[in-house]
Amino acid sequence: MSLEQPCRVLIVDDSAVVRQILSEILASDPGIEVVGTAADPLLAREKIKRLAPDVITLDVEMPRMDGLAFLENLMRLHPLPVVMISSLTERGADTTLQALALGAVDFVSKPKLDVTRGLQGYADEIIEKVKTAARSRVRALVRAPVAAKVTLASPAAPIAPRPSQFRTTDRLIAIGASAGGTEALRVVLEGLPADAPAVVMTQHLPATFSTAFAERLDRHSAMAVREASDGEAVLPGHAYLPPGGKHLRVIRDGARWRCRIDDGPPVNRHKPAVDVLFQSVAQSAGANAIGVILTGMGDDGARGLLQLRQAGAPTLVQDEATSVVWGMPGAAFKLGAAEEQLPLEKIAERLLALSRA
Questions:
Q1: Among this protein's residues, is 319 annotated catalytic?
Q2: Which reaction(s) does the protein catalyse, per the Swiss-Prot or TrEMBL entry (predicted)?
Q3: Does residue 63 form part of some domain?
Q4: What is the model's pTM?
């Protein structure tokens, strides 16, 4: 897709009302051309071949073929940027996280009631996410077996606990992510052993998604991944996410760190916001912290990462080649906030090396 041409979008949804609303919202932007709509995946398959869209919006719950099965086939055989239109429900959260694992770039939440007004309220976000998806990098899906929590390592490369090698009380890893970040965080956490330094994370997600996301990360990590509760101690071997729709900050309490749950206003249009977490870590941990920004759109976290670097903390960003969207890491790099750019698969190894330094 050239920069001068509008991105071509195919809308796939079994609801005629939703198809109409999304068509109107997207067509209102001169940078988007709605080339067609489809009521189910089988019709969509034919239209993809005929219309060659740049981006697909996809509802998960549809007749004739499950949306996830369709997405999996699409990403294996004909990878395209996909923005999911998902329900703001517990079941919808789990399904959306599965869709992101299969290669969807991002998602927009569809309200359960008054869909017309609800989607109109998300118009700017829908337009932004579709246009960002058109510039994103998608890769063909390669299905790999999901390792159980107790058998994370292969026999050839066991993850042996090395508690003596970490000054865990001296190190705190802070990570921020957005679009593409649900899978990027999984990759990083899978690379960290059970005795790694404590990790605090912010991922842009709707409030209803946080529990399902924490549980999903916990299944894939040797560390204990959980939603943070206000006042709890930050412990080695644990990774903390903000509970739904709230900011996570870190405060110092004597010789240890604690989680502080902050219900203040959105920052950079986000709640939770990466800048809120990073700024608190810069103040509470300073040079003992390590800051990382993974894939995501926008610039949330760039200023906070700069504060971490100015406080003496090592700072990294995911490189452009492996990022789904190089908005947040790119903004941080351009601001001079990042000391290093690394491909996603090298970040966990680098974090462990810096933790031992």
A1: no
A2: L-glutaminyl-[protein] + H2O = L-glutamyl-[protein] + NH4(+); [protein]-L-glutamate 5-O-methyl ester + H2O = L-glutamyl-[protein] + methanol + H(+)
A3: yes
A4: 0.89
Please identify which of the residues 54, 262, 300, 319 carries the catalytic annotation.
300
245 and 306 part of one domain: yes
- Cα–Cα distance measured from residue 230 to residue 213, given in angstroms and rounded to the nearest whole number: 19
pLDDT per residue as tens digits for the range 229-279: 999 999 999 999 999 999 999 999 988 999 999 999 999 999 999 999 999
Looking at the fold, whether 167 and 303 belong to one and the same domain comes out as yes
Does the active-site annotation cover 300? yes
Check whether residue 116 and residue 178 sit in a common domain: no
Burial code of 320-339, b = ≥16 C-beta within 10 A, e = fewer?
Answer: eebbbbbbbbbbbbeeebbe
The residue annotated as part of the active site, out of 86, 87, 109, 178, is 178
Q: What's the Cα-to-Cα distance from 269 to each of 167, 264, 299, rounded to whole Å?
A: 36, 12, 11
Q: Do 163 and 15 fall into the same domain?
A: no
Contact by Cβ (8 Å): 241, 227: yes
Please give the residue range of the domain that contains residue 352: 151-356
Catalytic residue flag (residue 262): no
Q: Which of 54, 87, 106, 204 is catalytic?
A: 204
